[in-house]
Design goal:
The structure holds two protein chains of two kinds. Chain A is an all-alpha fold. Chain A has 18 helices and no strands. Chain A is about 75% helix and about 0% strand. In chain A, α3 runs antiparallel to α10. By secondary structure, chain B is of the alpha/beta class. In chain B, the strands form two sheets. A six-stranded mixed sheet of chain B has the order 7-8-9-4-10-11, sandwiched between helices. The chains are: A mainly alpha, B alpha/beta. The interface between A and B is large, with 31 and 43 residues.
Chain lengths: ~375, ~260
Amino acid sequence: MSNFISNVKKQFKFKHIATWVIVAAVAVVLVIMSESGLLNRSTIGLLSRIAYSIILAVSLNLVVGFLGELSLGHAGFMCLGAYIGTFVASLLRESIDNKLLVLILAMLVGGLVAAFFGFIIGLPALRLKGDYLAIVTLAFGEIVRNIFKNLEIFGGAMGYNSKTYNQKDLFVIAFVVVIIVLILTQNLIRSKHGRAITAIRDNEIAAKAMGINVTFYKLFVFVVAAFFAGIAGVIYGHFTTPVLYTTFSYNYSIEILVMVVLGGMGSINGSIIAATLITVINFVLQSKLSGGLAAIRLLVYALILIFVVIFNNAPALKPIKERFSIHNLKEKRIAKKKGTIVDDAAEWNRIETKVKMDSILTPDLPHNENVTPDKEDKSPKEVK
Amino acid sequence: MSEFMLETKNLGISFGGLKAVQDVNLKIKKNELYGLVGPNGAGKTTLFNMLTGVYQPTTGTFFLDGQELKGMSQEKINHKGIARTFQNIRLFNNMSVIRNVLVALHNQPEFKYSPFDGMLHTPKYFDVEIRMRDKAKELLDVFGLLDERNNLACNLSYGTQRKLEIARALATNPKLLLLDEPAAGMNPNETAELMEIIKKIRDDFDLTVLLIEHDMKFVSGLCDEVTVLNFGTTLAQGETKEALNNPEVIKAYIGG
């Protein structure tokens, strides 16, 4: 035991637990606020939406960002979790009195069913590469929701009605689940299995040559992501009544993908921030732009997304971003202490040169015609 | 157990009508440094790809230490004890140097823990991870890469990347190491250093090494025996000096 503690101490770094500690702190503040009646009903609804969005984005990031496979069927797994989870909960409620226990069991069952389908789909689909995997998973998502649409047991096209919990209690549970998911994913990424997964993304051929079982890890990540998506679905199912098949259209899968891409592939912190941001934007636009203005909601949403993407990638904005990036500020502070000069990329970019570095490095592009070469041919004439 | 570490019998592969490699018979003794030379397009890398399971041979078979490995997948062959480096370097570029080696330590029996240990960070996880890191540092030290361990692999110089690739291959604990042009892109000093390192790891890790190289000084200074390939067939085989002085070999290389 003492050995264990010393081992933990040796490897402990605050940045390893920073993410979920911050999320937990925010959650505690929110819970206190809701208990003291500072939050109204719609805000609590928004918070729960943020909670399951974070779970969805983080789990999809495992597949897209860390494993490097494009999956467009994440809403399908969520759909499975939502229908099966609420169905199981309504069955269990007749025999078990404890509401919390019912919910936990429902989450487990919902998650496991989604994971099982993840396994079934992943087994053949993960042999495909790139776009083809995206097509198969896209089809899977559509098939799942259409099956539930046609099952009378789940309410058919009217949706499945379930007694919902008190929203206040639910959102506490939702945040506990978010923190558990965050801890599990981050631990996985930081273990040797996480290293194997990122190795597959970086160079599949080399990973195979290093003896890593690529098929196993692809399937494993797919199943874990489906499990978490299923749990998110159960949470969703208990917040929203009725559970309606239209929610889980491929648009929603794309929205989760947008969260992952905006937050940055392979960045869990990014996924959390992007999921929060997109959910809030959607919520605000939905509540502010009602009536005749509702039509421009998607337009504004798209404009915001385009702006964020351009801001992320525009070369002109790069110096600005670098000047204010946390990493850069930290490095400068350390350099100040040591008294050394920092190689500041932002500074270098601002120095004017006759030939743009880009045009030298990319021979495909035509060279800038405005550049005038030094006139060497003049000097011999003058000698004459 | 057999006298030879690697033995191939009539190993060959054809892609459609093209016979890329035909009837290659190698017999590599234990602890030997064995060279594989030949002009461009002779089928050297294709032979490596067959030995590591990237391609499945269409004719013949091969044995590692008396055990037939034909038909196994890449990862299975690696578990059995063949590790390789690549002609065009295939490091995990976005990972730090030490992580590259840690990935390769993945399958060692002393570093096993389940994904659930990893997700829950059980005591076993901490114990294994610390031992893994020590082992990785030990390996990097052999190649003088210890100070670079926190740099990204893509930021290393070309020669250093080659060294890291060898370190990574060694981390899988192989019996037979396949090196595909290890000295390409190195300056003469680095090449001389690499020769010393290869000899050293051969002795320290009890390895057999099969290497492809175009630098004849490198081959004749290092290898006990060579096989010369040309157009997929064996041109000459035997002790290094004799084989390289064979008129047929000179003709294939210089032309005439």
